[in-house]
Amino acid sequence: MYRDISVKLVDVSKSIGTRVLFTGINLVVNAGQCLVITGPNGSGKSTLLKIIAGLNQPTTGAIQIISNNKQFDAEERRACLGLISPEIILYADLTGRENILFFTRLRKIRCNEHQIEGYCQKVGLAVDKDQLVRTYSTGMRQRLKFALMLAIQPLLWLLDEPSSNLDADGKRLIAQMISNGLEQNAAIIIATNEPWEAEHADYKIELA
């Protein structure tokens, strides 16, 4: 797709009522780079991530996603990003495999059974891929979200607390996936307070 993708935050501010969450954020994140957003609960980490995803609007400023000197419209933005968040809902009455098929078809991405097997294998769900997601633990659901990320192969990864509900093996898996994504030239933006996740950062925004 767009191998030289970049995300530009231009004077981004967000207020809720009289409360200012953040103001005057200016930054460019290029392909192969990682931005980490940190701060206490309620500081606006998830809100900033949603603004970048186009799910929320800034009070002032703009998010520009650019490739080949072309700024993406809303549809192109959705096509180039993958979002992992506690608010992303999987279909409980579908299996893990069926969830991957459903979401890839929404993106008009071809994904065959062999590929799904490989994605599930990489995240440790090969044995469980044909179980209903309602039977999954919270950690297994988080792993399935990363299997979806592998299937979609977005150029922009937006990760909200990506190691949430994962054990030590799961956290090592996510660290390796983030490293691999950067090596494959994805732009990655992470909202987290985990020190080990912040180690991936080329840039860091600390919200108050």
From TrEMBL:
GO terms for molecular function: ATP binding. Keywords: ATP-binding, Cytochrome c-type biogenesis, Nucleotide-binding, Transport. SMART domains: AAA. Pfam families: ABC_tran. Residues 7-208 form the ABC transporter domain. Gene3D superfamilies: P-loop containing nucleotide triphosphate hydrolases. This is Heme ABC exporter ATP-binding protein CcmA. It comes from Pelosinus baikalensis. The lineage of its organism: Bacteria, Bacillati, Bacillota, Negativicutes, Selenomonadales.
